[in-house]
Design goal:
Length: 311
């Protein structure tokens, strides 16, 4: 193969209580990327839709992982490089994994062009270089579900230890207020130390959420969607957050919170009817506030990065 086109899904990181360790892939929205194999060791980045993406591959969330891949000693014989054409539906700074989609999509496509020589864990390792470009930190809670699909637990980054978590059917409603919250800025405002009682409560919620997924216990999932460490700080950056969360739960949502570093807010529901009702609540709140927004009603993407075509 000389060329491959993929779809890289949006993701919800943290899942409220699982800061940097839990993530979930979404069916909608997704980025579309075409990656071409070159016969010289270089990486070329082109944005097809006007987003001001860095063309220097070392500064681009899709380019940096490919540069890392090209440094691997086990590549097929002869010099190789990649040309990447990116069409983004996942707006940068939206909080639903824009940088991860670029990084993971580029890596998965390049791996296919090279004959699938790298494991999924290796692909995550490469894609982490994209997240470091975006936020200054290698975190895999968006990358892992983007590559593995479904819901993932990142038990460890060094060394990588990623576990896929089975879950019952879940409908996801996302509202993206049209403001930007940079991941790097959202990380800087977090407290460096937390109270032991808060840490214990958070551990209980993470364990409860994972158990709820595995047991298909919707009530346990809802009870566990609580964050006492990160959300109280970051929610101050998102207009209408408390009102959205309260009214969506009153409308029947299991619960939810900030998607990644924000400003997007996600809510989980048991069925599509409830998810649509939750969307109407979100719309009404932001219409009243007078803040532009986008909404998505979708489900969990079990596949991760999807190959659309190859030649």
């Amino acid at each position: 193969m000389k060329e491959i086109t993929i779809q890289a899904p949006a993701t919800v990181a943290n899942l409220v209580c699982g800061f940097d360790v839990l993530g979930m892939a979404l069916e909608q929205p997704y980025d579309k990327m075409t990656v071409r194999l070159l016969d010289k060791p270089e990486v070329i980045i082109t944005s097809l839709d006007g987003f001001p993406l860095p063309t220097d591959p070392a500064l681009n969330t899709a380019g940096a992982p490919l540069l890392a891949m090209l440094e691997e000693p086990d590549l097929p014989g002869g010099p190789v490089g990649f040309e990447v054409l990116i069409s983004k539906q996942i707006k940068p700074g939206s909080g639903i994994g824009s940088s991860a989609a670029s990084a993971a999509g580029a890596v998965v496509a390049a791996n296919h062009l090279l004959g699938n020589i790298f494991s999924k864990e290796d692909q995550v390792r490469f894609a982490l270089f994209g997240e470091k470009v975006a936020s200054g930190v290698k975190h895999a809670d968006n990358i892992a579900p983007c590559i593995y699909g479904g819901i993932t637990l990142i038990r460890s980054i060094f060394p990588l230890d990623i576990i896929s978590i089975p879950a019952p059917p879940l409908h996801v409603t996302v509202v993206h207020p049209q403001i930007e919250v940079r991941t790097s800025d959202a990380r800087q405002i977090l407290r460096k130390e937390v109270l032991l009682k808060d840490a214990i409560r958070q551990w209980g919620n993470i364990g409860g959420l994972v158990a709820g997924f595995i047991k298909s216990d919707y009530e346990l999932i809802g009870r566990s969607l609580e964050d006492v460490i990160i959300e109280p700080v970051r929610s101050m950056l998102i207009p209408g957050f408390d009102e959205v969360k309260q009214q969506c739960k009153e409308a029947g949502a299991l619960g939810g919170g900030i998607s990644g570093s924000g400003p997007s807010i996600f809510m989980l529901s048991k069925d599509a009817v409830t998810a649509r009702r939750v969307e109407q609540v979100m719309k009404a709140i932001y219409e009243r506030i007078g803040l532009a927004y986008h909404t998505y009603v979708t489900v969990v993407n079990q596949e991760g990065v999807k190959i659309v075509s190859s030649q």
